[in-house]
Write a structure and sequence with these properties.
Elements lengths: L6 E6 L3 E6 L1 H7 L2 H4 L21 H21 L6 H12 L22 H15 L5 H7 L6 H7 L5 H14 L8 H6 L1 E4 L2 E5 L3 H19 L2 H22 L8 H8 L4 H6 L1 H7 L4 H11 L5 H11 L5 E5 L5 H15 L11 E7 L9 E3 L5 E3 H8 L8 E8 L4
Parallel strand pairs: 4-7
Antiparallel strand pairs: 1-2, 3-4, 5-9, 6-9, 7-8
């Protein structure tokens, strides 16, 4: 009797009907670590600006895995030798690439757990799953960490032309209801090839890559770094900075036992590695827990914590000013003086109400460039090909400066 591997069928609003095969992939999708991603918003607090942007990391991970499967099949048809084990490992690496995201995704990156990024937590969780699944994720871990000799497989997972970016641009654009992120995903995948162990795109796909890079550039300023989204997410960060400050001063705060670990303890990456209780508590956190805590904190006796929670939950967001140059010091000081007077704030607490950030979008890094396969079989870096074709859209880094403060000042 022939054994048939499990398959998962998912009706995805973006890619249509997705079909993923393999017992390991199916088991990982059903695992509690992966199911947690149902409760993590893909776009943080962007729904406060784009109400439809409520998709989760769960569906994004599945979509990216679907595109990975299509890319591998495309490369196989072009004669690239990819073993069954390598194929499965790439699917697993893609499926689990975001498993370490904190609640609200990037909004609380490095804030809820200072100095710890989601890639580091993803790796720790994958290593734990590898133990649970008796080494079946070992090859996926090598690919995820760019340690596998066949580099192009890792580039499919993480590079400037990976399946993660192809999915999130199309998906985020769809759910936000904007057209800026629309890219020809199928066309780009059809144009993929491998030369000298480097993932590349055939020359005839160059204009699809142009559209892809332009879509990234536009989506950053239209959605990801929309000024109101920045205000909301900076306010969220300040809420948890204040909550942690109060907790570590001995204040009793409402929170789940899992969240309390991250409020009352000063944790580092080493704590994640050495103390299994920390990593286990992290896997129990999602957006809903944090929102529930903030709702209770609106009644807390601490003015700053309760006020920030009220403003955020009731969408009384801070005003945002944007500039391509650093704001004048005297101008900033005048706003701070008004804030201090109106809200009766101590000087050391001003940072909760006057938020200052700088964001740089680096859409394309030449040092990690996209490679183009010419009709003569020569590999060329994308910028060289763009120059030959006279393409003039600039992808140079752009820096903008933001200040946020209450509108009523």
């Amino acid at each position: 009797m022939m054994l048939v591997s499990k398959r998962k069928m998912i009706n995805d609003p973006v890619h249509g009907m997705i079909e993923l095969h393999g017992d390991l992939v199916a088991q990982l999708m059903d695992h509690a670590y992966f199911q947690r991603l149902r409760g993590i918003q893909q776009l943080g607090l962007s729904a406060l600006v784009y109400p439809g942007a409520v998709q989760t990391r769960f569906l994004h991970a599945i979509g990216a895995t679907h595109l990975m499967n299509k890319a591998l099949e495309t490369l196989k048809k072009k004669g690239v030798n990819i073993s069954t084990a390598e194929h499965e490992a790439c699917l697993v690496a893609m499926l689990l690439h975001d498993i370490g995201h904190a609640p609200f995704s990037h909004a609380l990156e490095h804030s809820l757990i200072e100095g710890v990024g989601h890639e580091e937590v993803s790796l720790l969780l994958m290593e734990k799953l590898n133990e649970e699944f008796q080494g079946k994720l070992s090859l996926a871990l090598q690919i995820f960490q760019h340690k596998y000799p066949r580099k192009f497989l890792s580039q499919l997972v993480s590079s400037q032309l990976d399946m993660d970016r192809l999915d999130y641009l199309k998906r985020d654009s769809f759910y936000a209801g904007v057209s800026e992120g629309e890219v020809g995903v199928d066309r780009i995948i059809d144009m993929l090839h491998v030369k000298d162990d480097i993932l590349c795109v055939e020359e005839k796909g160059i204009y699809s890559i142009e559209k892809f890079l332009l879509a990234r550039k536009l989506m950053y300023w239209q959605v990801y770094l929309h000024k109101t989204v920045i205000a909301a997410e900076q306010m969220l960060v300040k809420v948890f900075i204040r909550a942690k400050q109060l907790a570590q001063q001995g204040e009793d705060l409402f929170a789940s036992d899992f969240l309390k670990i991250f409020l009352y303890e000063k944790l580092s990456l080493q704590d994640f590695k050495k103390n299994p209780l920390v990593l286990d508590a992290f896997t129990m956190l999602d957006d809903a827990q944090l929102i529930a805590s903030m709702r209770v904190w609106t009644r807390h006796k601490d003015f700053i914590l309760s006020d920030l929670c009220k403003r955020l939950l009731h969408r009384r967001l801070f005003k945002v000013e944007v500039s391509t140059e650093i704001f004048d010091v005297n101008y900033k000081n005048s706003i701070k003086a008004q804030l201090q007077h109106k809200l009766n704030l101590d000087e050391q607490d001003l940072h909760y109400y006057f938020l200052e950030e700088r964001y740089t979008t680096d859409i394309y890094k030449k040092t990690q460039g996209i490679h183009v396969l010419s009709k003569t079989g020569e590999l060329k870096e994308l910028y060289a090909v763009r120059k030959e074709l006279g393409l003039s859209i600039s992808y140079a880094p752009v820096t903008k400066y933001f200040i946020c403060y209450p509108k009523d000042v």
